[in-house]
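Reminder: ligand-aware prediction takes two inputs, not one.
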Amino acid sequence: MPEPLRLVSIGAHPADVFDQSGGTLAHHTARGDYVACVALTHGARIHDAVISDGMYHRAEIPAAPELQQLLADRSDVKAQEVVAACRILGIEDVFFLGEDDGILLVERDVIRRLAALLRQLRPDVVLTHFPFEGDGQVCSHAVAGQIVLHALQYAGSVDPGDRNPPHRTAQVFFFGQGAAAVRTGLWDARGGYTNDIFIDITDVIDRKFAAMECLASQGYAGAYNRKRTETGDGAFSGHAVAYGEGFIRMQAEVHYHLPLSAYARQRSRESDHEIMRRYSWRLPMPVTDDLATRPQPVRDAESPTGD
Ligand SMILES: [Zn+2]
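Here is what comes back for the chain with zinc ion:
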């Protein structure tokens, strides 16, 4: 058995790690890998029912002390939702860096705190936002990706006050959603970047759905969750599996043999309609226990690189 991997998924807002990598993380916890989640900001403003929605049409918002208290209360609500969602995916370690999601900037303090956490957790793999998502500047996902890149770099050195030794992370997988849209191959990239890794999350899509249901304070439960499951994970499958999560790899990798996944081999041997049947399967709504028709993961022991 290979040594278990250590994964850390880092999101700008509390919901991001589930939205973008929840199914993938569920696979890794099930395999016995270490998985931790980090929320860079408290996220009290992002789609929040009280702060961002409830105050929008008011004539006047509360005075500063009351507003501060409300922000703190809503941060706590979000944090509890994140812990509940993590539990569904088998994740116990969750870290909240507590930055304000109002103005997120690439700043020394948050970089140092995140770098210290990386030296402590010592991940092999970090998952985070693509640093050029959206406009690449004001988009808080892009800024979060840039903060993580700085922290990864600084974690490789020492910092007075942090007794943990330097740490280098082996690979970074950037969240594809919102960054590379649904691009699925080299020809879509046109010289730019593209999702080059898809994880088939069909076997855990009901658990990811349940985790997203926990994020009720920002309106993700119910109708929104159903819609995003189909238009996000459902469309984001590389057109080979029913539900997927896409990633953009940061580092080119070295192999001894040419890598070819079991999925690629199966797809090449399936007929047109067999492939269409596999990716056309939909999670029953409401989610029931009857998931018998769900396509099974492709697990080929002979797979040269594993999945
Ligand atoms: Zn976000």
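Residues 114 and 151 are 6 Å apart (CA to CA). The chain has one domain: 6-257. We will return to this case in the review session.
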